[in-house]
Amino acid sequence: MEQPAKAMLVLANGQIFEGKGLGAAGVIIGETVFTTGMNGYLETLTDPSYYGQIVTQTFPLIGNYGVIPKDFESASSHVRGYITRSVCEAPSNFRCGGTLDSFLKEQNVIGLSGIDTRALTKVLREAGVMNGMIVSGDGEEACSVRRALENPAEKEALLEKIRSYKIEQAVESVTCSAKGVEESAQTVFTESAAYRFVPVRSDGTKENDMAAAMKNGTGRTVVLWDFGAKANIRRELLKRGLTVVVASASTSADEIIQMNPDGVMLSNGPGDPQDNPVLIAGIRKIVERDIPVFGICLGHQLLALAMGADTMKLKYGHRGANQPVKHLATGRVYITSQNHGYAVKNETIPADAVLSFVNTNDGTCEGITYKSHPAFSVQFHPEACSGPLDTSFLFDEFVALINNPACFKNFTAPYKRIDAISYFASTIKGTKEKAVI
């Protein structure tokens, strides 16, 4: 068996983690982040939202069930680089179609394994996400980097190059990435039912009957405005009987309005939401036409910006499948899957909107419902695959809004403004209520 190449991660602060090569060889610079998911590594690798990022898996063993193309969120991988503690070289699963290492080589993703990912995660938690460079193999560029690290002046120049990296044209680079894995509604529901990945209602029960699940959405058309959409967003819409028309990020708001859709789905995607002024203006135009709108992740942030709110970059983001959020209307806490490095500033949410969900760890905004227009959004992923499925009932709420778009006018819930810092501090002291003003 071929021995893995020597490899290392060079962080922008000069810290170096040495290990073994994984996937393709070469040199790559990206934004180094970590995700706490214990499974779902295939969905992570094919999620367009990770564009430009070097993803570190905190779970120590990755690749144990191999590569399963049916689980992909898009047709290819979008990560800039990939880091694991240990890689399973002999995966076991009846759906397995290959090893993780082979997949990364096919996708030309440069990876690193055999390092202390716990130590790396602690660095990123304390200092915040930072740029990094993966150096793998014995190619000319890799050897040049290693020589530079031995010379103080050259090392500083290299670190400055790493620090200067910026994720640019993110949405434009990944829009419609899921085209290659799209399937019909019949196929989607049949295959989902085989693994009990069917619609989950608000009471937690599952709807296994396709006709019942699709009843309320049949005959309705939704435009999925694709900013880097995960394939499962489309699948969840199809499971509710909706006809889904995918529109690329370059599609104008006027073109979408001319389609006369019953609703518009604003997808997830990568990068800084404020880098998309044209999309923000277009979303504002659609909302003002009172077309029902549902936003997820980046779509949530763009909708908030369109409605007058502001966004901020988080220290190290929320990435993983175990993020708790509180539904303020009911007091119920849901475990959610998340992948974002930006958030809507709580104090900037407009007065005619309601903070619907809040992150129970740090008090940041996780959902907004708008009272002046039929629109709502969430920061987390209700379509999460491989789960949890707890909040997929939000797709049913979207269908209900489409069928009765005027219902938002009867919305009378009081607006609650929560400051994230005071919320987090009061949570530690056990006086959470005092942070709600």
Short description:
By secondary structure, the protein is of the alpha/beta class.
Description:
The radius of gyration is 22 Å and the shape is globular. The chain contains 14 helices and 18 strands. The protein starts with 5 loop residues before the first strand and ends in an 8-residue tail after the last helix. The chain has helices at residues 41-45, 100-106, 117-127, 140-149, 152-163, 170-174, 185-194, 210-214, 231-239, 253-258, 277-288, 298-306, 393-403, 420-429, and strands at residues 6-11, 16-23, 26-35, 53-57, 61-62, 81-83, 86-87, 110-113, 130-136, 221-226, 243-248, 263-266, 293-296, 311-327, 332-344, 353-359, 365-370, 375-378. The strands form three sheets. The chain has a nine-stranded mixed β-sheet with strand order 11-10-12-13-18-17-16-14-15, with helices on both faces. The chain has a seven-stranded mixed barrel with strand order 1-2-8-6-4-3-9, surrounded by four helices. Strands 5-7 form a two-stranded parallel sheet. Strand 17 and strand 18 form a beta hairpin. The protein is an alpha/beta fold and 437 residues long.
List the helices and strands and how they pair.
Blueprint (H helix, E strand, L loop, with lengths): L5 E6 L4 E8 L2 E10 L5 H5 L7 E5 L3 E2 L18 E3 L2 E2 L12 H7 L3 E4 L3 H11 L2 E7 L3 H10 L2 H12 L6 H5 L10 H10 L15 H5 L6 E6 L4 H9 L3 E6 L4 H6 L4 E4 L10 H12 L4 E4 L1 H9 L4 E17 L4 E13 L8 E7 L5 E6 L4 E4 L14 H11 L16 H10 L8
Parallel strand pairs: 3-4, 4-6, 5-7, 6-8, 10-11, 10-12, 12-13, 13-18
Antiparallel strand pairs: 1-2, 1-9, 2-8, 3-9, 14-15, 14-16, 16-17, 17-18
